[in-house]
Amino acid sequence: MDQNDYCKDKICIVTGANSGIGYALSEDLLNRGATVYMAGRNPEKVAKAAEQLSAHKDRVRTLVVDVTKQEQVQEAIEDTAAEAGRLDMLFNNAGIGGTLPYETATLEDWKTIIDTNLWSVIYGVHAAVPIMLKQGFGHIVNTSSVAGLIPPPFQALYCLTKYGVTGLSESLRYEFAEKGLNFSTICPANIATPIFKKTIDGKVHDEFPDAPDDAYPVDKAASYILDRVAERKGIIIVPEEPSTDLWQGYVLGMKTFEDILLRMAHERRVSYETKGSYF
């Protein structure tokens, strides 16, 4: 099967579709012939994002849903499946960043990031699996992070949520392999999206850089991700290098990688103590 054909005529839900990876995935899915329900919390932003893709006409749909609210996620997924007659693919993509010193994190910060990055995925999986089991097919794609494979310092909150997403997705990938359900985990490194300007509380900081200098273009990331999804790949690291080498080095306990993390920890602490941010 051609990689583009895997998504053709599929019914897809993408959360966090207003911008960043979610928007890029939605656009690429549409280009591959899918019908995409673009989901987001803000009605105006969802509508604007969909309008930008209006050339795809009735294959672009919108869902207004707060992914931290279980009942809203449940309703959105069940209503989509009922309207379309099935649910082929669910992209649990919505999420927030979280790079800060552990000692400054409040319990409210912990709750916010866990609700957004982890519970939202659990809610999506909980709603979609029964539908897909009844159908006998379906593909759930959960957005984790390279920080869900390796532990960058000053990202303890973020790592907790993303390790959870990775573990959940990988475990279910094997559990449902004989039931016709596929699970993939997106593990992005630095991708050029607005996430770098936002803090856990959702505030945008214009003084923050748009993205690190090594950030990978988001459109290329989306295309690569969907090609790997079409191959039913489990863990999808993007871009592959150098992140794959770093992950393997960490798993193998290589001292070189430990030195990299210790150096990163030192540089980030100095940056926080002198500039108030890790940039």
Summarize the structure.
The chain has 279 residues and is an alpha/beta fold. Helices cover 46% and strands 14% of the residues.
Walk me through this protein's architecture.
- By secondary structure, the protein is an alpha/beta fold.
- It has a single domain, classed as NAD(P)-binding Rossmann-like Domain (Rossmann fold).
- It has helices spanning 20-31, 43-52, 70-84, 107-135, 156-175, 218-230, 243-251, 255-275; strands at 11-15, 35-40, 60-64, 89-92, 138-143, 181-188, 235-238.
- Strands 3-2-1-4-5-6-7 form a 7-stranded parallel beta sheet, with helices on both faces.
- Helix 1 (20-31) crosses helix 6 and helix 3 (70-84) runs parallel beside helix 4.
Alpha-carbon Rg, integer: 18 Å
Supply the CATH superfamily name.
Answer: NAD(P)-binding Rossmann-like Domain
* End-to-end C-alpha gap: 44 Å
The first-level CATH class name: Alpha Beta
CATH architectural designation: 3-Layer(aba) Sandwich
Please work out how many helical segments DSSP would assign: 8
Structure summary, number of beta strands:
7
| Overall spatial form | globular
Largest sheet: 7 strands, parallel
Q: Could you name the CATH topology?
A: Rossmann fold
Overall average residue pLDDT: 93
- Spatial strand sequence of the major β-sheet: 3-2-1-4-5-6-7
Order of helices and strands: EHEHEHEHEHEHEHH
Output the structural class.
alpha/beta
Number of domains: 1
